[in-house]
Amino acid sequence: MKNIILSILLVTFTIGFTNAQSKKVQTKFSIDKIVTNYLALKNALTKDETKAVASAGKTLYATFNAVKTNAIDAKLKKDYLDIAESAKENAEHIGDNAGKLDHQREHFVLLSKDINDLIKLFGTKQKLYQDYCPMADEGKGAIWISEVKEIKNPYYGSNMLTCGSIKKTL
């Protein structure tokens, strides 16, 4: 009888522990979808496709709005919210300005800094590159994040597609 009770307790404990572990995995926060939508926006900019850029900006904005912040570790939540507020504003601006490629690119400078900050904060499973264009942002220089090693400049698109360099691998 003791063996049966101990077996039942052991099985119950194991099931409870397994469920607790699976809940931890399910609530782990990831910025993968944010990064994927940012990359779509970046790629549209490299092709000078202002309507596709606007559409991607709206998608990225919606992605930020759909984030369940309760899944974010309490220590990181305030930083996430600060970065996300800025990123959402820039994504929204990009989305609302189809036909104004220069204006979209101005906001992309700030959005790229925000995405870079999110990657620093949460990391990424995907191999990414932080690229740099010294001429962007009125000669101040600006970074962007890319999924490919080849330089495809979103700040100048077809005018200077290969202008820039890889600053670091993320």
What is the topological layout?
Layout: H1 2-27, H2 32-46, H3 50-66, H4 74-95, H5 101-122, E1 129-133, E2 142-146, E3 165-169
Antiparallel strand pairs: 1-2, 1-3
Helix pairs in contact: 2-3, 2-5, 3-4, 4-5
Describe the structure using short key phrases:
DUF3347, three-stranded antiparallel beta sheet, 9% strand, 60% helix, 3 strands, mainly alpha, signal, DUF3347 domain-containing protein, 170 residues
Structure description:
The longest helix is centred in the N-terminal third of the chain and has 26 residues, at 2-27. 60% of the residues lie in helices and 9% in strands. It has helices at residues 2-27, 32-46, 50-66, 74-95, 101-122; strands at residues 129-133, 142-146, 165-169. It has 170 residues and is mainly alpha-helical. The radius of gyration is 21 Å and the shape is globular. The chain has one domain. It has 5 helices and 3 strands. 30% of the residues are buried. The model is unreliable at 9-14 and 16-27 (pLDDT under 50).
